[in-house]
């Protein structure tokens, strides 16, 4: 989620297009519902593109061939442990010919509760930190403004510890609450 938000606030034109898609298919008088997802193709493209650029882990689960195998011209004997570098494949110019590291959700096209923007004009840092889960080197800091429908059903308040706006996701009205 943090990678997706970082990419979106660095590419306001993509965020605007996603917002327009949600407004067109869902409107502003209710939240996105699970049934809406099949109509939100651009949002799916954004998610796919984010996972391509920033996979949850750089290496896939190790594989072990049950028989001798040749892959990419390399001989792999039976019983070998094969590690697949998904991060590298997703940045391979042979596969992603048109600027493999760029954020272009349109590549995935065909197959919203908040308004987000950067806290400054400076692009969000997209450097990766150390670890097997590909964390961001610098934490994401963005400004979030609830869409009108969120204000109707939830409480907005200031966090007394940090003085920053927070959202209480407990419904204002008691009763059954469901996200989907």
N-end to C-end Cα span: 19 Å
State the domain count.
2
Main sheet summary = 2 strands, antiparallel
How does the helix and strand content classify structurally?
alpha+beta
Write down the secondary-structure element order: HHHEEHEEHEE
Radius of gyration: 21 Å
Q: How many separate helices? A: 5
Walk across the major sheet and give the strand order. Answer: 1-2
Total strand segments = 6
**Broad shape:** elongated
Helicity, as a percent range = 25-40%
Mean pLDDT: 76
Percent range for β-strand residues: 15-25%
| Low-pLDDT windows of residues | 164-180
Explain this structure to me?
The protein is an alpha+beta fold and 180 residues long. The chain has 2 domains: 2-55 and 90-130 and 141-171, no CATH class; 56-87, no CATH class. The protein contains 5 helices and 6 strands. It has helices at residues 2-10, 12-25, 41-53, 86-89, 148-153; strands at 69-71, 74-76, 114-118, 142-146, 154-158, 165-171. The protein has a two-stranded antiparallel ribbon with strand order 1-2. Strands 3-4 form a two-stranded antiparallel ribbon. A two-stranded antiparallel sheet has the order 5-6. Strand 5 (154-158) and strand 6 (165-171) form a beta hairpin. Helix 2 packs antiparallel against helix 3 (41-53). It is elongated. Mean pLDDT is 76; it is low at 164-180.
């Amino acid at each position: 989620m943090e990678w997706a938000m970082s990419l979106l606030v660095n590419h306001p034109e993509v965020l605007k297009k996603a917002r327009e898609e949600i407004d067109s298919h869902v409107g502003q008088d209710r939240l996105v519902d699970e049934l809406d997802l099949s109509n939100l193709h651009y949002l799916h493209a954004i998610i796919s593109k984010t996972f391509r650029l920033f996979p949850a882990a750089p290496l896939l689960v190790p594989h072990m061939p049950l028989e001798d195998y040749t892959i990419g011209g390399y001989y792999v004997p039976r019983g070998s442990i094969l590690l697949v570098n998904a991060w590298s494949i997703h940045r391979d110019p042979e596969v992603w010919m048109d600027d493999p590291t760029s954020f272009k959700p349109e590549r995935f096209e065909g197959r919203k509760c908040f308004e987000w923007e950067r806290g400054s004009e400076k692009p969000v840092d997209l450097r990766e930190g150390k670890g097997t889960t590909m964390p961001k080197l610098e934490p994401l800091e963005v400004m979030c403004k609830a869409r009108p429908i969120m204000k109707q059903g939830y409480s907005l308040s200031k966090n007394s510890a940090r003085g920053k706006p927070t959202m209480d996701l407990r419904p204002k009205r008691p009763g059954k609450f469901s996200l989907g």
